[in-house]
Write a structure and sequence with these properties.
Rossmann fold; globular; about 290 residues; 2 domains; binds nicotinamide-adenine-dinucleotide; 3-stranded parallel beta sheet; 5-stranded parallel beta sheet
Length: about 290
């Protein structure tokens, strides 16, 4: 999946989906039903509408029973919690995903905490975060899973490597740092208060950027031969057109990196592929209990 030194996330995601499809088929023959992924969308945020439709469609393409529940923007927190409770109890539902962000009148933390940890295919529940932190089996957030698979595919040796993670969110930065640590890398997590970010980044054999700042990482921030995973998705206007760019200045950094993911076509497609993979993991784990 390395095209020159560019890590092709689109091609790798397609390979992951094929693997998932095989596991779905095996699950169906063994248990007589398809794994189920239920996605909840509250309101009409334009980006969220597209994301949730894509998730439902991707699920169906690999044979997962994908269902999108669209709730009105005025839905109360109590109503949403009731819906989650209903899906928690439904034996045919293996994965529950509540699309973020939620409308302001709903407490995101209470909602995410209400999802059965065994069905928490986003891996955001504190039980799953705790299990990951303890190095125990759990449902792991999809984007970090995708990053690790990209590193594996690039044959990056992580043992003893210096890994720098830019960003400390619960969704990307912290879990990807945990996964790198489990692979025996020496991990540093940097954030908005870190001093001399360029100098720290230059120590990295593996650099994961997840900050949401367009093209923050420049060529002189990156050690020659480093592997760079760009998680950022930033919309900017270039020559009058709206385009997506990462947290890394791709054209510059590509000149020095041993391998680098593009935006779009890098981490993004891997995230959705691992959502499907997590759904099958959840289904298999639930069927075994
Ligand atoms: P977030 O806003 O929750 O966290 C950003 C982190 O970056 C924070 O920890 C903050 O301290 C740090 N930060 C901000 N400015 C910084 C700076 N100037 N220098 C150093 N650190 C800085 O964001 P998130 O949810 O972790 O997402 C990060 C980026 O990844 C966003 O662009 C988001 O759109 C993207 N993302 C992509 C995918 C994908 O599938 N490709 C999935 C999730 C998030």
């Amino acid at each position: 999946m390395l095209n020159g030194n560019v890590l092709d996330g689109k091609a790798l995601a397609s390979k992951v989906r094929t693997e998932v499809k095989e596991r779905v088929d095996a699950f169906i023959s063994r248990h007589g039903r398809a794994p189920g992924l239920d996605v909840i969308l509250v309101g009409e945020n334009a980006a969220s509408v597209v994301y949730t439709r894509n998730k439902e469609k991707a699920a169906k393409e690999v044979g997962i029973r994908g269902v999108l529940h669209t709730l009105a923007g005025a839905t109360t927190e109590a109503e949403l919690l009731k819906k989650i409770d209903q899906l928690n109890r439904d034996p045919n539902v293996d994965g529950i995903l509540v699309q973020l962000p939620l409308p302001k009148h709903i407490n995101e933390m209470r909602v995410l905490d209400a999802i059965d940890p065994g069905k928490d295919v986003d891996g955001f529940h504190p039980i799953n975060a705790g299990l990951l932190s303890s190095g125990r089996p759990s449902l792991v957030p999809c984007t970090p899973m995708g990053c690790m698979r990209l590193l594996a595919e690039a044959d990056v040796s992580l043992e003893g490597a210096n890994a720098v993670v830019l960003g400390r969110s619960n969704i990307v930065g912290k879990p990807v740092a945990q996964l790198l640590l489990h692979k025996h890398a020496t991990v540093t997590i940097a954030h908005s208060r870190t001093r001399d970010l360029p100098a720290l980044c230059r120590t990295a054999d593996v650099l994961v950027a997840a900050v949401g700042r367009a093209e923050l990482v420049r060529r002189d921030w990156v050690k020659a031969g480093a592997v760079v995973i760009d998680v950022g998705i930033n919309r900017v206007v270039r020559e009058g057109k709206s385009v997506l760019v990462g947290d890394v200045l791709f054209e510059e950094v590509k000149e020095v990196a041993r391998a680098i993911t593009p935006v779009p076509g890098g981490v993004g497609p891997m995230t959705i592929a691992y959502l499907l993979s997590n759904t099958v993991d959840a289904a298999v784990a639930r069927a075994a209990t």
